[in-house]
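Lab notebook, bench 4. The sequencing result for the construct came back, and we need a structural model before the next group meeting so we can plan mutations. Quick request posted to the team channel:

Model the 3D structure of this chain.
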Amino acid sequence: MNFIEAVNEIIATRRSIYTNMFSGEQVDDKIIEKMLDNANWAPTHRLTEPWRFIVFKEDGLNKLGDFQGDLYKQRYKDSFNEETYLKLKNKPLECSHVIAIGMHRDEQQSVPEVEEVCATACAVQNMWLTASAHRVGCYWSTGGVTFYEEAKPFFGLGENDLLLGFLYIGMPKSEKWPAGKRNPVEDKVKWVTR
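Done. Here's the predicted structure in token form:
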């Protein structure tokens, strides 16, 4: 397989592998480091490099789970739901690693926010493609405390920054990689020739 075919194959086989499909086996930190290094090569307008990541593993997963559960409990005193609380607290423990995804605004805010979000999403896609190439499972979730304004300081994010979710990472139980499906690209493209 030549280089172009390999790139096409990696893109076409990128998958969301959810925590119920994780084996419990730990992902090698070298793969996580390569995911992060590849994230750093995402396109970025004016070289603002807005992506910020925090990697949680081992006891750090407990710290993340405790933070999410406690913040939920504080925020929803009057409508507290034990099931939601336990899910927030325990979801990280189903993973080998969890990467919190932040978008940092430069001081001058010289680039429109949507461009910084897009750049960060490109960085996440680079991580995801790298994980898939190594047959490591992951998925991007915007659940949990993602949109809680008061969560930002925990993740080192400022007032103008955004928490964009979490990349949940683990080794798949099955060696068989899931097949994907997409509707034809022709349904989504219009060519203008004159």
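The radius of gyration is 18 Å.
Will bring this to the meeting.
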